[in-house]
Amino acid sequence: MKERSCVIVDAYSTGRYLPEEFERYEIGTVHVMSAAQIPAIFQPHFNADLYDEVIRPPEQMSNEEIVEFHAQVLRGRKLEFVIAGCETGVELADSLSERLGLPSNGTALSAARRDKARLSDALGAAGVRSIRQVVSNNAEEVTNWKHRADFDEIVVKPLNSTGTEDVFFCSTDADIRRAVGAIVGKTNRTGAFNHFALGQEKINGQQYTVNAVSIDGEAFVTEAWTYDTVPIEGASSVCSVERLLGGREPIVHELSDYLVRALQALQIVDGPAHAEIIVDHRGPVLVDFGARLQGTMSAKARTMALGHNHMALTAWRYADPQGFAAYMRRRGAYKRQAHALCVSLISDTAGVVSGYSGLETIRKLPSFADAIGFVPMGQNPVPTVDLASTPGIVYLVNNELNQLEDDYRKLRAMRMDHVFDLMTQDRN
Questions:
Q1: CATH code of the domain in which 406 resides
Q2: Mind listing the pLDDT tens digit for each residue in 196-205?
Q3: Which domain range does residue 150 map to?
Q4: Pair (187, 274) in one structural domain
Q5: Do 342 and 359 reside in the same domain of the chain?
Q6: Whose C-alpha in 147, 285, 343, 415 is 20 to 30 A from the C-alpha of 260?
Q7: How many CB atoms sit inside 10 A of residue 391's CB?
Q8: What is the pLDDT of residue 232?
Q9: Which residues of the chain carry a pLDDT beneath 70?
Q10: What CA–CA distance (Å, rounded) separates 168 from 332?
């Protein structure tokens, strides 16, 4: 066992790479599970061998019993910190860090960091702009709220989910009925049961993703990206491409100021945060939030473009707090070292993946930096309706903007049956 040790709660998604980051600082990791079973979406990527220990709670425990179980197991150990590895681990990480007297965001607003309705309430209570909303399991109630508010279009989505799962743009009463019917009564990908649906005003503006890392109440924005979306029939829209912004651009300053106030409203004082923000004629407003690392990202490509990445900075914050804080204060606004695009592939084809012949062509693009999240061999791409159903993500990084844009056009022109070798089910 190493002299230094920490706890990662639900080290899934991007969090599964944290053990390697902490290994650089000779910090061992204990993996704590917030539920007896790993959600199906994360199971293929979990490797128990990366951890000094994996602690799994017994079946059929309540959330309160799970907190108490882990607190008893961990009490008395020499631990430096507890961190959430992904969205499902946020509340347990808050509870355990608070109970064990370690750096913590506390539990007072823990639920608001995961529940989208409570999130908006917490922002509004602190005087930070938030989205008007209604929570209900009844489609008629949501419809009546839309009419009273005189909205042309609203967004209907689960209170607690990830990867834009079951996000619907609704302009008609029938749209709302379909959306509420699809959400309420469903167990989402994270294993949470949807008792209610959330209806929110649709903010029409440019959307951005912004990441930050906080230490002792001081937040440092690590990057900001603007992204384009394409509409999806029967759902909402999906991201097609994200573009890295320069740290000194005026819009990044505006986004950073808003995010810092939002983090204060949510009492985020330590650790990573990932925000989805839309800017319209009234300014920025938070539309989604995670008190954890950004999911589905390439640390390699982001380091090429920024000289750092969200995960490495998070690990630094916990492993060497003084060094991290001194560097970030001296650094000021982050610096973009190269132009970068994060391109989400969009599937409209079917068949079983038997190879990736188009990936060789993609890798020969002068701007190619990384390819992640490709549909595994033997599986079937499904029509893209959200982040989880994106068949793959390609990062392009280049100092020359013209070259970057030319490579993007070539990538976007490729058909999915040219990227993936697909076999029909009856031939497999």
A1: 3.30.470.20
A2: 999 999 999 9
A3: 132-201
A4: no
A5: yes
A6: 343
A7: 22
A8: 66
A9: 1, 163, 232-237, 382, 385-388, 425-428
A10: 38
